[in-house]
Amino acid sequence: MIQVVKLVKHYQEGEVTTPVIEGLDLTIGDGEFVAIVGPSGSGKSTLLNLIGCLDKPDSGEITIDGTIVSSLKNKEALSFRAEHLGFIFQDFNLIESFTVYENVEFPLSVILGEKNTRERVKEVLEAIGMLDQIDKYPDQLSGGQKQRVAVARALVVNPRIILADEPTANLDSVSAKKVIDLMKQMQEKFNTTFVFSTHDTKIMTEARRIVTLQDGRIMDDRSNG
Amino acid sequence: MKSLKIAYRTLKRNRRRMILTTALIAIGVMFVLLFAAFSGSFKHYMIGQITDSMLGHLQIHRQGYVASLDNMPLDKNIPEHKLRTIERELDAMEGIVSYSLRLKHSALISNFDTSTNLRLNGIDPAIEHSTLPQLRSRIIGNADFAHGEVLIPDIVAKGMNLKIGDSVVLVVTNNIGSMNARTFKVAGILQSISGPGGRDGYIHIDDSRSLLRLHQNEANEIAIRLHDLSALPQIRQKLTHLLLASNKPPLEIHGWEELSPFSSIAKMIDLMSISIQIILISIVLISILNVMIMSVYERIKEIGTMSAIGTPSSFILSTFLFEGMLLGIFGLVVGTALSYGVVYGIGDMTIRFGRQDDILLSPVLACTQVAFIGVLVIVVSALASLYPALKAARMNPVDALRS
Question: Looking at the domain A2-223, which fold is it?
């Protein structure tokens, strides 16, 4: 479970302070499939970065499964991310010099130092339908395929939560739909909590819960179907 | 090993950049190694020639003799009783192959038509050859000349149109101004070499003493050959201790470096070698630093992703360190291979230096030099990669992902 309480985050640029998150409260339960929506600058990415322990709030608290992640030190945050969180990015951000297999295996072998990774990697790649592409490099894949690999990379460590920042923004509508469908399938299969940001209205309707942000505050929080 | 794999594959992906950087480092490595090989060979040849055909490794004189050598003084000879003492000490000392007594003096040489001044060394040919093993190779004619024979330098032979077997008259003045002359037969012609004594003639030491009307077996120079040139400082110290203890007459001991101006050239060569190594360091440092900074900026998102998903910063650091070091190693391997190719391709070569036009160079790539350059390139590559690698490892994931 993710609990966000009275979260505040400002960005300082020179003498100008820009408020991004203004006293935000939010609770996301286990296994939810949540879309964070809102216009550019509404604080979607910042909220995901704060939940993902990539950034620290100015005030307020974020708790994930009982751990107050907003007060973790850098090293603690690093290992918390490695063990409990998965990330999917707008630009896919695969390691270009690694094959599909190596990209997916990377978090297991390098970050968690696991030895027998082959079965787990194959299981995840099979689940996302990329088992026949394991020896390809990212530059040999389409955008949709790259994002599927990114989903597999996020899933392979079996995280409780996957945070996806605009995962479909660089995809055509067909690929975007496929990626969102895949995320939904994975959420059902592994009971992983998915929190993703989007400003694509078609994509947001795929979510089971939609949280709308504006000027760093929640304007709307509703279930979707 | 995963970081090494990423480093290697990243280099492979940027093949053109890798080839250009490798080529630059390879050229630098090649330049340093070839300079070391050729200059080392030149130095070795020249030092060998100077010590093995002219000066020996060490020389003993009466104090003040070397300072006034240009005047060929005869009032600074070592008396016979002192020579016997020195000989006893040298015979008993370990590390000495041979030593040769010399009586150096000037003379006027005449072919009955023209005459010129000549510096002569009175020597015992057999002993001189064992002290200077390369002297024989400089002599055309009879290197083991007898009493009444003279070896003249080629420059005098050419100037006076003298050939082996010709007769010449040597006129000398002794230390009290008395003149003496005798006819000698030209037994051989000496090839000139650079340095003091490189254009001297030779007669038997008994003939020198007779011409100078010396009543004792005096000499004014003792040339010493050592088993091992690297033992020169220790043996010199021992000799100084033994010989300079008795102060009558005071003696002085010199190493070949103090007697030959070539030692300054050798030092200059060493200095140039260091300068070229500094240039190599700059080439490696600048090229790798430049490439690695580019690599970090090109892969900011990749670094941000790695950091975001929990990759330890030590892994990111090692990835970039390996990348820079691999570039250095590739350049080193290519440069060393090319250097070996050039050295073996050229083989022996003859060059001109000063008045010598037949200096034979046999360049060799010393393993120690190759190892030193190897370590230098790898260390400098690592240092050059350190700043970009640290920059990557310390990158804030949010800033990196936002870029």
Answer: Rossmann fold (3.40.50)
